[in-house]
Amino acid sequence: MNDKAPAPAAPAAGGTRASAKKELPDHLKSYKHVWVLVELERGVVHPVSWELMGEGRKLADQLKVDLCGVVLGPPGGTEKAVADCFGYGADVCYVVEHEALSEYRNEPYTVVATELVNKFQPEILLLGATNLGRDLAGSVATTLLTGLTADCTELAVDADGSLAATRPTFGGSLLCTIYTLNYRPQMATMRPRVAAVPVYVPGRTGKIIRHEVSLPEEDIITKILAFLPDATSNKSNLSYADVVVAGGLGMQNGDNFQLVRNLASVLGAEWGGSRPLVQKGWITSDRQIGQTGKTIRPRLYISAGISGAIQHRVGVEGADLIVAINTDKNAPIFDFAHVGIIADATKVLPALTESFRRRLAAASTLSAAE
Amino acid sequence: MHIIVCIKQVPDSAQIRVHPVTNTIMRQGVPTIINPYDLFALEEALRLRDEHGGEVTCVTMGPPMADNALRKCLTYGADRAVLLTDRFFAGSDTLATSYALALLIKKVAENWGEPDLIFCGKQTIDGDTAQVGPGIAKRLKLLQLTYVAKIEEFDLEKREITIHRRAEGGIQVLKTKLPCLVTMLEGTNEMRRGTMGDALRAARSEIITWNAAAAGITELALCGLKGSPTIVKKVYAPSPRAEKAYQIEVEDKSVDQICEALIGEVTKRQPGLEKDLVKTSSDY
Ligand SMILES: Cc1cc2nc3c(=O)[nH]c(=O)nc-3n(C[C@H](O)[C@H](O)[C@H](O)COP(=O)(O)OP(=O)(O)OC[C@H]3O[C@@H](n4cnc5c(N)ncnc54)[C@H](O)[C@@H]3O)c2cc1C
Ligand SMILES: Nc1ncnc2c1ncn2[C@@H]1O[C@H](COP(=O)(O)O)[C@@H](O)[C@H]1O
After folding, report:
1. With an 8 Å Cβ cutoff, are B170 and A229 in contact?
2. Domain boundaries, chain A
3. B197 to chain A nearest CA, in Å?
4. Sorting pLDDT into bands at 50, 70 and 90, what band is A311?
5. A344 CB under 6 A from ligand 1?
6. Are B136 and B181 a contacting pair, CB within 8 Å?
7. How far is Cα B61 from Cα B59, in angstroms, rounded to an integer?
8. What does the alpha-carbon distance between residue A114 and residue A215 come to, in Å, rounded to a whole number?
9. Which of A62, A370, A292 is nearest to B275 (CA)?
10. Rounded CA gap, B252 and A60, in Å?
11. Exposure pattern of B1-40 as b/e (b: 16+ CB <10 Å)?
């Protein structure tokens, strides 16, 4: 009974709710433009912000409004991010620089984001569905008492100009499209890697609007004592890898999984697996691909012994080329792979590794000779 | 010390089936479980109570049968369980849910003392939004610590807590004041088995059950469907791709021939990839 936004179980989802009408109160009619909150952490912008810039551009063009980046950071620390906002398609950039915004903290970020929204009144506010984005979006939406759709995989504008935010629900078995008809801004967070980073146009510029805030450090109760960076050696970069090789239960045991890593190593690729492998302890959870793991968008994805359950599929569909190796010709993975091999992955992988090794070695001597 | 833990009863999504025609979730007979992420929150609360004394109250908003999940919390060792249930809450989105839970927590505080800590799970496996925790914190004007991987220090006297928070590329070590709301990351601890005494007590105990009025919730316009700014307009199954995968011929072929054919297909469909692979793989 208390399902939240995605409530397909309630018959109401298809009935009364679907017929809910748009009756935007007058004081919200002036809300205009599409905003993307740019995640700037320790000098680096999370790529999801640029993915959102690409999606936001499409929405803004359709609505015939401006696309705006919102950049919060330390004094003197936002210049590059602002330039990149324009390069990735923003028309306007709101910039707030303050010592208290040097590193992400919920309190000052919520204060500043809410203040900007109230002052400049965007109709759509988009954030990444990252730890930062989800932490902030929940606080901002509750402060503004507006709707927020989490973890979207698709954003669109419908005929009457409302944001249609689509997200998987019930572990990816269904998709639902959610609207915030009568509140502004319409807020959504989007999963990293479901959209492509738009083409960067160097030298593109736009309007910068600076906003001053008062954030005395003594008023901020939460203090940052330290930042402990992850050891880079064992960190996976699955989401942003060009080539990914993954294995599933069809690899049969943990030892065979080494065959997946071997191919990845020859290709200079990242490797991962389906969820049962995490449960079995063959791989760590940061290597899990799918709905409750990482979304990937490589140029080439090779899957070995993975059946292609919907929860896995939603995480890999954005790949340019999907190759599947599976003994079962009816495996669902062949419904969305581009190239299939019906064969034993434990036999194909070692041979494939060898073939690629030979081929790349030959190609590299060739290119060295050039 | 008083700790409140927000738990939710959810359908065991591993066993959920979608009706092929109507695209609705077929819940009949699907077993329900405590949202797995909430168990990490509950265990952390119980651990702090065992170390520092005090009480743990588990709360949920849900249908009457959610008392099962609460009883389970008692068997793990929670001291008290409160269920908020009323038809007015049907169809709540995250904003309406956080409204009801915030008021429920206030009422619990009136009865059994102000909480020093409120725990939530990272997210639910049915709603999957990770928004309710921050929503409750904002409504109660509490500080929030999300994605907590570890409680490093807990000082009840100084009323301070130091935690490790999962952030992009590393861990933030944050220190804040009590009371605050913590959402726990998965895999941070292991749920205890619960003692025989707890099991017996749970079987005997009554789950405190309140409707909206009993919890002092009078602004019903802020609850349920009415209080939810988001509207689910469409629910549908992902559409299948039109064509099936191109199959590499395997009949009467050696493994090497199959591999050559595959590499040929990859280079044809992704021209330029090989050249880049030469670069990246030789970086190794
Ligand atoms: C809420 C929820 C979230 C989930 N999230 C995820 C997620 O994020 N990621 C994810 O992956 N899963 C997720 N799952 C699990 C998902 O539903 C599937 O159970 C899982 O993806 C199956 O993994 P698998 O393909 O490795 O195993 P199986 O489904 O068992 O498939 C094994 C495949 O290997 C093939 N095979 C067997 N032997 C060989 C061989 N020698 N050579 C080649 N092929 C062989 C078989 O034909 C079969 O198709 C989730 C489930 C739920 C309920
Ligand atoms: N109906 C509910 N009753 C009690 N706690 C809830 C409820 N819904 C969500 N929560 C809490 O909020 C957390 C995040 O939920 P969600 O925003 O649905 O992902 C959960 O892990 C629970 O701790």
Report:
1. yes
2. 28-219, 238-369
3. 31
4. confident
5. yes
6. yes
7. 7
8. 13
9. A370
10. 55
11. bbbbbbbbbbbebeebebeeeebbbeeeebebbbbbbbbb
Task: Write out residues with Cβ below 6 Å of ligand 2.
Answer: A 2, 4; B 6-8, 35, 37-38, 60-62, 94, 97, 101, 120-121, 123-124, 127-133
CB A257 within 8 A of CB A251: yes
Kindly state the tokens that stand for B271: 């021209």
Low-confidence residues of chain B, pLDDT below 70?
13-25, 27, 240-241, 281-284
Residue A9 contacts B, CB cutoff 8 Å: yes
Per CATH, the homologous superfamily of domain A238-369 is TPP-binding domain (3.40.50.1220)
| pLDDT on residue B284 | 42
Domains A28-219 and A238-369 share a fold: yes
Pairing of strands A207-210, A92-97: parallel
* CA distance readout (Å), A259 to A345, B146, B261, B283: 9, 38, 20, 21
Q: What is the ipTM of this complex?
A: 0.87
Stretch A174-181: mean pLDDT:
91
**CB B188 within 8 Å of CB B79:** no
**Ligand 1 mean position, distance from CA A329 (Å):** 15
Residue A353's pLDDT band, with cuts at 50, 70 and 90, is: very high
H helix or E strand, kind and range, residue B199:
helix B196-204
The answer to whether A334 faces chain B, any CB pair under 8 Å, is: yes
- The verdict on a CB contact (< 8 Å) between B18 and A149 is no
Q: Is the CB of B13 under 6 A from ligand 1?
A: yes
How many angstroms separate the alpha carbon of residue B187 from the centre of ligand 1?
21
Mean pLDDT taken over chain A: 90
Domain ranges of chain B: 2-222, 242-284
Instruction: Answer whether CATH 3.40.50.620 is correct for domain B2-222.
Output: yes
**Pairwise CA distance, residues A318 & B41, whole Å:** 34
Q: Options 2.60.120.200, 2.130.10.10, 3.40.50.620, 3.30.390.50; which CATH number does A28-219 get?
A: 3.40.50.620
Better pLDDT: A132 or A171 = A132
- Helix/strand/coil (H, E, C) string of chain A? CCCCCCCCCCHHHCCCCCCCCCCCCHHHCCCCCEEEEECEECCEECHHHHHHHHHHHHHHHHHCCCEEEEEEECCCCCHHHHHHHHHCCCCEEEEEECHHHCCCCHHHHHHHHHHHHHHHCCCEEEEECCHHHHHHHHHHHHHHCCCEEEEECEEEECCCCCEEEEEEECCCCEEEEEECCCCCCEEEEECCCCCCCCCCCCCCCCEEEECCCCCCHHHCCCEEEEEEECCCCCCCCHHHCCEEEEECHHHCCCCCCHHHHHHHHHHCCEEEECHHHHHHCCCCHHHEECCCCECCCCCEEEEECCCCCHHHHHHHCCCCEEEEEECCCCCHHHHCCCEEEECCHHHHHHHHHHHHHHHHHHHHHHHHHC
Q: Decide whether any atom of ligand 1 lies within 6 Å of the A295 Cβ.
A: no
CA distance B213 to A315: 44
Report the pLDDT value the prediction gives residue B20, as an integer from 0 to 100.
65
In this structure, the number of other CB atoms found within 10 A of the CB of residue A295 comes to 20
Query: Which residue of A lies nearest to B242 if distances are taken between CA atoms?
Result: A335
Calculate helix-pair angle for B67-76, B36-52, nearest 10 degrees.
Answer: 40
Q: Which residue has the tokens 């090989």?
A: B274
What's at A177, amino acid-wise? T
Whether residue A176 contacts residue A8, with contact meaning beta carbons closer than 8 Å, is answered with yes
What does the alpha-carbon distance between residue A53 and residue A49 come to, in Å, rounded to a whole number? 6
